[in-house]
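Hi F.,

I've been meaning to write this up properly since the lab meeting, where we talked about keeping a consistent format for the predictions we share between groups. The idea is simple: the sequence comes first, exactly as it goes in, then the structure tokens exactly as they come out, then a line or two of notes. No screenshots and no reformatting. I'm using this chain as the first example so we have something concrete to point to.
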Amino acid sequence: MAPSAVYWHFPSEGDLRSAVLDVEYTSLIENVQAALDSAAEQDEPLVVAGNTYIAWALAHPGAYQLLFESHDELPATRADQGPGLQRRVVELARRVDSDAPFAAALMLWSVWHGIVSLRLHKNEWDWGMSAEQANLRMISALTRQRP
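Output, unedited:
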């Protein structure tokens, strides 16, 4: 089979790229949803979500970079399950800021993305703690009582 044969199944290169990204985004979403759904009652959901997001990203660096570090314009929603997970994270983010949960969810994503991106691009650094430990410390700091 010739490498160009894949184009017979997609109208354009953009459609092919979008199909690949949909599969990867669905995988990320399903992993985070499954981890939240199966977490023990005593587990902090934000830590579970963050650890799962970080673990998926570090295990799929190419897909992660295409999804979140590419300059390519992407549709607002990558997969059907995306809005459901986004709503769930925004609801969980009320623990960080009950007055502005969407902004808090964006801040959480910024923290998780920062942990992933720096570890992918600066993997020669000694971080002094695991990604999971960094996530736990950040979530602990963010969920403390605000002044």
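Notes:
The chain has a mean pLDDT of 86.
The longest helix spans residues 13-38.

If this format works for you, I'll send the rest the same way.

G.
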